[in-house]
Write a structure and sequence with these properties.
The chain is built from 8 helices and 12 strands. By secondary structure, the protein is of the alpha+beta class. The two termini are 30 Å apart. Bound molecules: (3R)-3-hydroxy-3-methyl-5-(phosphonooxy)pentanoic acid.
């Protein structure tokens, strides 16, 4: 699809309030390296989560000055730290939703997960914002169909944070043009087709909060380091091949194949960080202790549990629904001690964002 199909016409301003909840997501095949405006160097695939969400309400107030303006509140308190990031996002999206310049936005947002937990909130935050923007656009242009609504929401979210494109729908989304999914796109994420094996629709994701401090290297800096990375071109080939194989695996119940690709992707992402110039390490000793304990459990109890990592030290454990109780006991008995303040979140695969 051409980018200019996403540019809306103008319409008379009117006051409107919208409220959306959007989930976080965890990539199984990782996006690391971009061309420009969040056009990925390789396709990625993720599980949409259920409990880790951002709830955002926007009041759109028409104003005469025709210069776009907004106020942002987080947990009911004015939050000026995000203003630059949000301002950049609104400037970018205004090319596609020019009506925004006729409004002042009052934005109120909150996260379900602990503040500064080290869980990336930009995906759920940008997705929730974009869905609110699309709600307003649908108010102005009521003929819009549902599939365009969600496609453009993913397109706008991508401009805020690449991985946010994958936080609109669920349970599994794919972002980035690839040969396995004919309707895939670099501009927005699409759903895994109907052939997804049912076992993955109830997959569990325990998030072990190892380190809640903000990252020493941001994801934007990390993506940029891939531009001159000595192993970048092979990494993009590897990710494309992993995506192709994982799509096939997720149509079956090949859990051994699933474990192998998911863990290899997590370690490859961190290997890219460790071999970039400048190099950096985002995991912590406790991250490795949790990985080793997880490998022991898998081997000793024959449970198809695996880990993945985001750009940080927290560990995401992935396992089928039927092992939910065993894994909970395992975390309490053996992993909790490696988590900061003993904190962890028991989440699971979800169906995507919803209007409140
Ligand atoms: O969406 P960004 O620019 O924050 O990049 C996300 C990168 C990873 O979380 C490391 C991987 C991914 O695909 O989500």
């Amino acid at each position: 699809m051409e980018e200019n199909l996403f540019v809306s016409k103008t319409a008379p301003p009117r006051e409107f309030k919208s409220f959306w909840e959007a989930p976080s997501n965890i990539a199984l095949v990782k996006y690391w390296g971009k061309i420009s405006s969040q056009i990925p160097k390789n396709p990625s695939l993720s599980f949409t989560l259920s409990k880790c969400v951002t709830k955002t309400e926007i009041l759109f107030k028409p104003h005469k000055s025709k210069t776009f303006d907004f106020d942002f509140y987080f947990d009911d308190k004015p939050m000026t730290n995000f203003e630059i990031k949000l301002g950049t996002f609104f400037k970018l999206v205004s090319s596609y939703i020019p009506w925004i310049n006729e409004y002042k936005l009052v934005i109120k947002s909150q996260n379900s997960f602990p503040h500064s937990s080290g869980i990336a909130s930009s995906a759920s935050a940008m997705a929730a914002l974009s869905l609110n923007l699309m709600d307003m656009e649908r108010k102005l242009f009521p003929k819009m169909d549902n599939s365009f609504f969600y496609q453009k929401a993913s397109f706008l979210a991508r401009l805020g944070s690449g991985s946010a494109a994958r936080s609109i729908k669920g349970p599994v989304t794919i972002w980035g043009k690839n040969n396995s999914v004919s309707f895939s796109s670099d501009l927005y994420a699409v759903n895994f087709d109907d052939e997804l094996s049912p076992i993955f629709k109830t997959y569990q994701n325990a998030i072990l909060l190892v380190d809640k401090n903000s990252k020493s290297v941001t994801s934007s800096q990390g993506h940029n380091l891939m531009n001159k990375h000595p192993y970048a071109s092979n990494r993009f080939i590897q990710a494309k091949s992993n995506l192709k194989n994982l799509v096939d695996i997720m149509k079956s119940e090949d859990l051994d194949g699933f474990v192998e690709i998911v863990e290899s992707e997590a370690l490859s992402l961190h290997a890219m960080m460790m071999t970039s110039n400048p190099y950096f390490i985002l995991f912590k000793p406790n991250t490795l202790s949790i990985i080793e304990k997880t490998w022991d459990l898998r081997k000793n109890k024959k449970i198809p549990i695996c880990f993945t990592l985001d750009a940080g030290a927290n560990v995401h454990l992935l396992y089928p629904f039927e092992f939910k109780n065993i894994v909970k006991i395992f975390i309490e008995d053996e992993l909790k001690e490696f988590c900061q303040n003993g904190q962890y979140i028991l989440d699971y695969v979800g169906v995507g964002a919803k209007k409140i």
